[in-house]
Amino acid sequence: IRASFSVIQKDDGPVNGVITVLHDITEQEQIERERREFVSNVSHELRTPLTTMRSYLEALQDGAMSDEQLAPKFLNVTQQETERMIRLVTDLLQLSKMDNKDYNLNFQKVNLRELIHQVIDRFEMSKNEKITFEKYIYDKPLPVRVDRDKIIQVLDNIISNALKYSPDGGKVIFTMNKEGNSVHISIKDEGVGIPKQNLTKIFDRFYRVDKARSREIGGTGLGLAIAKEVVNAHNGEIWAESEYGKGTTIHVKLPTHQTREESA
Ligand code: ADP
């Protein structure tokens, strides 16, 4: 419900009353509003790299092209912006596929313990040496039925955030445990953290705590939204815990048995 208030007052005279209008925002309206917001966000996100590219291309045309120092720098910027747009469009396509009702996950039997080690090892090879990894991974095989590629993507998105927002010398701690009929994975970092009031919003499409900073480090603002869609489709849960300035932990819980689609 949305409330709006109008004060009844003649010129500077006494306040005679207040009119309160309560609007019942129906679910349909809410969906419609979210859709409009989404389209506006997408347009903005695409426009930003395009306008940057236009100004660098104009500068090249206006003479920077024959400047041996400037030309490669400017071309580099346009290339980075192109890469960003490709990432953005790839993420958007993926979300749009997942929004589609007839979208199917490709369930297969996967040993989660092996899978998480593979993903962590890949990051270990390419990460900044100043960040260290610590692992507390369930030490028996953990067979589950999941869409392997999609779960890899969820882990990729969470781990790359942990690395992006970690300071030099920071630690990233991976934990995986079996809890009843679920697997609980958590990825903890010692990075900038997230203010309490934003903790649930970070799973919304295009939501970023610090827009400028996220763009600077190449984020699309869609990584966690995709992770949430995938985890939900597996009938799992994803949530964040954080202490601002101290670090963040992203938790994922996946059922070891049934998934919504399979049970349906
Ligand atoms: P982005 O591409 O901006 O990283 P995400 O959907 O992956 O988009 O994350 C949304 C926002 O959540 C980020 O912009 C950032 O503000 C916040 N966030 C996500 N992970 C972390 C983390 N590990 N530490 C601090 N902030 C984070």
TrEMBL record:
Domain Histidine kinase intervals: 41-258
Origin species: Pseudalkalibacillus berkeleyi
Name recorded for this polypeptide: histidine kinase
Domain of life the protein comes from: Bacteria
Cell location: Cell membrane
Residues included from the entire protein: 346 to 609 of 609
Domain PAC, first and last residues per copy: 1-37
